[in-house]
Amino acid sequence: MDFIIGSGSKPAAGGATPSDLIKDGSAATFTADVIEASMKAPVIVDFWATWCGPCKQLGPALEKVVREARGAVRMVKIDVDKNQELAAQLRIQSVPTVYAFANGRPVDGFTGAQSESQLRAFVQRLTKSAAQPSLAEVMDEAKALLAQGDAETAAQIFQQVLGEDPNNGPAMAGLLRCLMAVGDVDSVVQMLGQLPPELAKHAEVAAVRTALELQQAAAAGAGQAAELRRRLAANADDHQARFDLALAYYGAGETEAALEELLELFRRDRTWNDDGARKQLLKMFEALGGAHPLTLQGRRRLSALLFA
């Protein structure tokens, strides 16, 4: 990796030398140079190309402003022609495009040429907003990303938390859920088997174990939903078909439909299969988590049936 060194520059604040402040990056070094480095100081990423006229103006001006900040921010330059896959992943549609990362995630950016005064204002915003977020804020961000379907980014954040606190139950549970979301069930099974006893007993980790058990049970009925619905249409009191359909729905990610079938089964025969519907409902509530809207709604409806 080549570093861009300004001649005659003095060491930057905080022990960083000029060669540390600005560097050429690539897809292979992006995690270390940008994601991990931004946990210590904001990192400005300049996406450019050799054929881009405005890039030739913006790049040197941005380097100048970064050096003036004397270690408060860092800069990584990415040639989009040499890193087309990375540019596509980050949705770079034109150059120059500049993203700023702090605490492992993008926080600001712009497209096109900017004046030096605009660049200084950009850096000032970054340095003012670079305070480390609380652990709760970091965890909330990761959980939100997972809920939005970005399991890979969420996993990176959970791993960062675990790097600081290996016994953090919620972070471990979050990482395991990310692995489940991308279909890496084997890693989940392996990790659950290797956890220290206290961490394995954590409520959120236990909920992941339950979710895994439900998923594995549901896998047996994959592809049978249509046949199970046909059986129920012929006989609404085919309790085994309704129970199996609930598992099939759960395995397909249709959790609300799964809960509906189990609640209906409990309403029809609460004693069937040794209280099987209620027990399965409780497992799904645990897997979802106590604060999940479907858990809260499902528990209310189950209580209403119990005391009807």
Automatic annotation (TrEMBL):
Pfam families per the UniProt record, alphabetical: Thioredoxin, TPR_19, TPR_20
Keyword terms, alphabetized: Disulfide bond, Electron transport, Redox-active center, Transport
The record's InterPro entries line, in alphabetical order, gives:
Thioredoxin, Thioredoxin-like_sf, Thioredoxin_CS, Thioredoxin_domain, TPR-like_helical_dom_sf
Decide whether keyword ATP-binding is in the record.
no
Q: Name one GO molecular function term.
A: protein-disulfide reductase activity
**So where does this one cross the membrane?**
none
What CDD domains does UniProt report for this protein, alphabetically?
ybbN (cd02956)
Q: Offer a single GO CC term for the protein.
A: cytosol
| Limits of the Thioredoxin domain | 16-128
As for family, the record states: Belongs to the thioredoxin family.
Q: Specify the protein name.
A: Thioredoxin
